[in-house]
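Work Package 3 (structural annotation) set out to generate three-dimensional models for the target panel prioritized at the project kickoff. During this period the team completed the workflow that converts sequence records into C-alpha cells, so that structures can be stored uniformly alongside our sequence database. As a representative example, we reproduce one entry of 199 residues exactly as it appears in the project archive.
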Amino acid sequence: MDGYFVHPSSIVDGNVTIGAGTKIWHFSHIQSGAVIGENCSFGQNVNIAENVKIGSGVKVQNNVSVYEGVELEDGVFCGPSMVFTNDLTPRAAYPKGRKGYRKTLVCRGATLGANCTILCGHTVGRYAMVAAGAVVTKDVESHALVAGVPAEQTGWVCECGHILKHDFHCPRCGREYRLSDGRLVPSGGGDFLNSESTG
C-alpha cells in the first residue's frame, strides 16, 4: 500500500492519495478525493470527507470528522472528539451541497484541543492553540492561545507549544518573539506569516 498502513476495520475509497508513513487506525473512513500527506496518524473512528486536503505530520485523534471544505496544513493536531463544521445554516430538508460549504483553514502547527468546535469560514493561524472545549467563531491569530465559549484570546504560545509570558521568551526551547502590529513575530526580524501561509 505504498508505505502507509490501514487497519483492516477501516475503509479507504478509490481516488485517494495517502503519503508514506501514514497510519489509519480502527473503524475509520477515508472518502474519495481526499489527499493526505506523509507520516500522519488517524485514530479510531475518524472520518475524512471527500476532497479534503491534509498536509504531512498531522495527528487526528479519536472520533473526529474532517468535513469537505476543511484544509489542514502540515503538523496540525486535532484533539479527541473536536468538531469541524462546513455549513453555518444547515437544514436536513433543504440541503445546499458543496455550494453551501464555507472554507476552514487550519494553518501549520496549530493545535485544536479536545472537544473544541471550529465554526466554518475561519482560519486558525500558524502554531495557534485552541483550548479544550472552546468554540471558535472568528479567525484565530498565529501563535494565539484562545479559550472559552465563544473563544477569546488569553495569551500567546511558542512554536513548541509552551505558553509565553510577557517577555515572549520561551524557557522550553529558547525561541524569542516580539509583538508587531498585534502579531507575534520572531524577535530577530522578519515575519513568518508571509513565508508559507496566509493564516
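The chain has a mean pLDDT of 94.
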